[in-house]
Predict the 3D structure of the following.
Amino acid sequence: MIRLGLFDDHDIVRAGFRYILEGHSDIDIVAEGATGRSALEAVRKTPMDVCVIDLSLPDLSGIDVLRQVKASTPETAILILSAYPEDQYGLNVLKAGASGFLSKELATDQLVAAVRTVAAGRRYISPALAELLAAGLTEDIEQPAHLRLSEREFQIFAKLAVGRSVTEIANELCLSSKTVSTYRARLLEKMNFKTNADLTQYAVRKNLVQ
């Protein structure tokens, strides 16, 4: 039996995923919620094999939750769901330590297979994400600027792009403002941008923010 946690801030979406998952006798939903903090609390209190988390939660991002879960209970596999397609966030989510990434557009067809795959200790790579990984092995294919970033740089980039201040990011990530400023300078240089406005414009253009 696969013990599963389900966390998405849209009640209708979560109900739809619950309906899909509950139809399979080898999956038991042991916890669910609408926020990142509820996911962290549930993982601490309830043993689970797989935690399915929306990338865009209202309090903490799916990547923030992922990092904390991997630090406290690394045996729990994390499957990230997102309204964004694989080419926007998939590679970065895998780099951050997720066991799999799945676009909500394809979740109905692939969700159960993804859950079973990560529960077995393997990574779930969708066909679309597999193509991206293969393309990354080809030297003459230019990678989007955000894929040049490290895991931490991308995490800070995503927060800057939606208007978070250096101080807010430092508090959320338990870092000093100086450290966040250093990451900001580094990622701006890597992406060849000068201001936070440049980051926001890029994120909107690439459909990285809603």
About this structure: The two ends are 36 Å apart (CA to CA). Strands lie at 2-7, 27-33, 50-54, 77-82, 100-103. Residues 177-191 form the longest helix (15 residues). Confidence is low (pLDDT under 50) at residues 137-141.
